[in-house]
Amino acid sequence: MSAAPTAPLLRIVDVGKVYPPNVRALNGITLDIRAGEVTALLGANGAGKSTLARILTGVERPTSGTLHLDGRPIELADTRDAHRHGIACIYQELPLLPNLSAAENITLGHTGRPFLGLWSPQPSRRVYAELAKEIPDAPPPDVLVGQLSVAQRQKVAFIRALAAHPRLLIVDEGTSSLSLSERQEMQSLLRSLAHARGIAVIYITHFIDDALSCSDRIVALLDGKLALDRPSADTARADVLHILGGGAAAATARAEAAARVKPVERKTAGSGAGLTVTNLACSGVAPLSFSTGVGECLGLYGPPGCGATEALRAVAGLSPHSGRVDWNGEVLPSAMAQRVLRNVVYCNGDRAKNLILSWTVAGNINLLYLFRQALLSIPSAAAARARAADVVSRFAIKGTPNEAIRNLSGGNQQRVAVARTVSLGLPLLLIGDDLTRGVDIVGRSHIHGLLRAAAGQGAAILLYSSDPEEIANLCDRVLVLRDGHIVDVMRRPNISVPSLEAAVQVGRRAHA
Prior knowledge:
Layout: E1 10-19, E2 23-33, E3 38-43, H1 49-56, E4 64-69, E5 72-74, H2 79-84, E6 87-90, H3 102-105, H4 121-132, H5 150-162, E7 168-172, H6 180-195, E8 200-204, H7 208-214, E9 217-222, E10 225-231, H8 237-244, H9 248-258, E11 271-282, E12 285-294, E13 297-301, H10 308-315, E14 322-327, E15 330-331, H11 336-341, E16 344-348, H12 351-354, H13 361-365, H14 367-374, H15 381-394, H16 410-422, E17 429-433, H17 441-457, E18 460-464, H18 468-474, E19 477-482, E20 485-491, H19 497-506
C-alpha cells in the first residue's frame, strides 16, 4: 500500500446527527480521510455509515461538528456544494434513468460543466468512452440503462462519478451486486484511483475480507460511534468480527427460534413433494429443467447476466415463459397472483421494489396476506394488527408495527420482507433473489437463520445470490448458470467458494 500524506484531505471533527424525536445516528465522529488512500468503512445496518455518507455529500447536514477540507472549514448546504468541493458518491440504490443511454446518464447533475456542455450527445459519448477505459467490461455508451443488469448499471454509476473529476469518491455498497471476480476487479479500480490518481476513496462495504484486501485503513462504526480506526495491514479479520460480528451467532439462533424449530443438519437432498421445473424458457434463459424437494435449499449461482434472476422471476410467474412448473403436486397456473395463492413467493434484495417504503411496518408485513385475502374474502383489520405485532415480536424486528418502514435500517427492512414470507406457513416455496444484498453481517446471519429454519420446517427454498460464500453456506445443491444454461451441478459437501468460481469459469454443460 502507498504511504499516506501527512495532512488529511478531509477532516471530520466531532460530527453528530440526531433525528427527531431523539434518535442519535452519529455521535462525535472524528476521522481523517487522506488523498491517495482507500478507507474502508464498516458497520452493521443502522451503525451510521450511510448517514455519514449523506453528510459528506451534502444530502443532510450534521447536527453538530465540523468538516475541514484542505485544512479549511466547509459547510455543505446541498449536493451542489459537495460537487463544487470535488466530492462524489456511488450509492447502493443507483439513481440512473432507465430510458436514457449510459452516456446520457453521466450528464445528470453535471449540465453546464465545461467538459460536458449542455446535453450535447457527442461530448457525453467522448467523455464516457474515455472514462470507460478504466472500467473493466464497461457497457457501450449508447445502450439504454434500463436494458442493463444491476452490475452493469453500477459500472455506469462509477463512470458518472468519475466524470465529475472527484477528489473524494464515496462508494456506498457500490459492489454489493457483483460476483466475486467482479468485486475484485472493482477493488483493483478503487486502489488504482487512490494510489495512481491520488483520489481519496471511502469504500462502504459489508464484505470484511474485501475491505481488508482493498483498503489502506479500516474504519468501523458501532451504534453511531467510531469503534475502530486502524491501518489495514495491522488489522486482522478477527479484530473486525470482534467489533461487528459478535451478534451474528446470536442472530442466527434467534431467527431459528422464531420459527419454533431446532437448528437442522444440512441435507444432501430434499424429500417429499416440492418443485419440478420442466423446459422453462424465457428471455435470457435457455430451456431449463430442475427440481427441489421440501426441506431443501437449491441455489443458483453465476456471473451477472447468467439468467438466474430471469429464471426465478419466471418460476414466480412474474415474467412470460414457456415450459411447465409443478409445485406441491399440481401444475401451476401462469399468473403470479395464482402462484402467490399457493404460497409461491418471490422476494428480492431490492428493498425499494420488495417493500412499499411509504407504508408502515405493519402494512408491509400484511401485504401478502391482504393480497391473498382480497382475492378470497374481505381482510380483517384486527387480524392484520395482531399478525403484524406477532411477526415483529417473534422475528425480533427492530421497529414498531406502526413505524414507517423507511425509518428502519436496511437489514431490518429485509428482515421484514423475509419474515412475512416465512410466516405464511406451509406449503411454502420461497424464491430468494439476492436477498441479503447490502445487508450487514449480523442482519445476514439473522436472514440465514430464517431460511434455515424455514427449510427445517418443510419449506422449499430456491435461492440466487451474487455472494458465493452465501451460496456455499446455505445451499444443499447448486445449479451453476452461464448465459442462461446450466453449466454445472454441485452438491454438498463439494460446494465452496473456489469450486463455484471455478465452475463459472470452466462453464461446462450439465443437467440437474
